Amino acid sequence: xxxxxxxxxxxxxxxxxxxxxxxxxxxxxxxxxxxxxxxxxxxxxxxxxxxxxxxxxxxxxxxxxxxxxxxxxxxxxxxxxxxxxxxxxxxxxxxxxxxxxxxxxxxxxxxxxxxxxxxxxxxxxxxxxxxxxxxxxxxxxxxxxxxxxxxxxxxxxxxxxxxxxxxxxxxxxxxxxxxxxxxxxxxxxxxxxxxxxxxxxxxxxxxxxxxxxxxxxxxxxxxxxxxx
Length: 228
Known about the structure:
The structure is a single chain. This protein is 48% helix and 13% strand. It is an alpha+beta fold. The strands form two sheets. The protein has a five-stranded mixed β-sheet with strand order 3-4-6-5-7. The chain has a two-stranded antiparallel sheet with strand order 1-2. Helix 5 packs across helix 8 (188-202). The radius of gyration is 28 Å and the shape is elongated.
């Protein structure tokens, strides 16, 4: 003989009926507050989720870097994915493929939204070799001096350079320059001291081009020894 199924709600309702009126009121208030809190949490999550969908970037030390969804959209166009794969293979064969994810080298700059330019661009194949020495410089010299870094600008198209202006557009356009920010919380003062000391030690034979901007963003290239 099988027993009838037990409804787990029934004992709870029975216990609730035995509560006094004041206890029922207290429970009602508690449940209402819990429901209100749940609604607020869900509404906040929805708001933040929708806001994240609206903006195609994330903040990196105050700079707008195009997010992964923007990169995926870029790679879906034309032969971009195949060309990135070829660039990746080239850098790996040159011994610098581990310095940064190669897709980071396609970042044009943090002001891409302001000047209405694509966030990514592919450098011409005949310029790929220009980046080898710069990546080696970052790996062997810059990172040991200031710690891990992140790229905010690498290759820039002619169109981007014309709109963005700046004296360094040429070296970015030739794919031998990187604008970087430290991943750590190193101060601007310490960052400048370390970079300038490194620049002086390496000397003209390094072709180390160094620039420091108004915050912790700095420029590295191997297109000629100079600093600003």
